Amino acid sequence: MGGRYRDMRHWMYDHYLDYPSFEEALKHPYPGICLNDWDWFCHNIYNFTSFQTQSTKNKSNRAKLPYVHCRGSRPFVNYLEDDMVDGEIELFRVTHFNKTNGWVNEVAHSKHCMSYL
Questions:
Q1: For the chain, which residues make up each domain, given as ranges?
Q2: Dihedrals φ, ψ of 103, to 5°?
Q3: Count of CB atoms within 10 A of residue 53's CB?
Q4: CA dihedral of residues 58, 19, 25, 64 (deg, nearest 10)
Q5: Do the Cβ atoms of 75 and 56 come closer than 8 Å?
Q6: Where are the beta strands (DSSP E) in the chain?
Q7: Which residues contact 62 (CB under 8 A, 6 or more apart)?
Q8: What does the DSSP 8-state code read for residue 29?
Q9: Rounded to the nearest 5°, which phi and psi values hold at 98?
Q10: For the purposes of burial, counting CB atoms within 10 Å of the CB of 12, is it exposed (0-12), middle (13-18) or buried (19 or more)?
Q11: How far, rounded to the nearest angstrom, does the alpha carbon of residue 110 sit from its chain's CA centroid?
């Protein structure tokens, strides 16, 4: 249940960001949300100072990551426990390489290559 609420909040926030100003976003509620609920979300969630501060920090921290993984929300330790991979080097390859798209970026690829030296 919490995951659905979080997803819905995210979709509504994306909709909110589609508009250039707070006032403009208020005029265009998310589809399926009544105007009163949309007004409450805009005033109490998205325009709240602590939300804006946390959002800015999160954007900054995500930008600092040298590479991302491609295995979703499943904990990495589950791959080790389920014997899907053998060791940390193989775990890195499984979580940062995709058969269709290849490595997530060159930094991840070079780090993996360096681990064999």
A1: 2-63, 76-114
A2: -70, 150
A3: 10
A4: 0
A5: no
A6: 97-98, 102-103
A7: none
A8: P
A9: -125, 135
A10: buried
A11: 24
Instruction: Enter the tokens of residue 99.
Output: 């058969």
- The answer for residues whose C-beta is within 8 angstroms of residue 15's C-beta and 6 or more apart is 25, 28, 30
**Contact 76/95 with Cβ under 8 angstroms?**
yes
Each residue's pLDDT tens digit, 59-109: 999 999 888 888 888 888 888 888 677 888 888 888 889 888 889 888 888
The conformation of residue 98, written as its DSSP 8-state character, comes to E
Report how far apart, in Å, the C-alpha atoms of 2 and of each of 8, 38, 108 are: 10, 19, 33
Closest CA to 58 of 13, 20, 107: 13
Q: Distance between CA atoms of 28 and 25, rounded to whole angstroms?
A: 5
What radius of gyration do the chain's Cα atoms show? 20
pTM over 0.85: no
71, 31 in Cβ contact below 8 A?
no
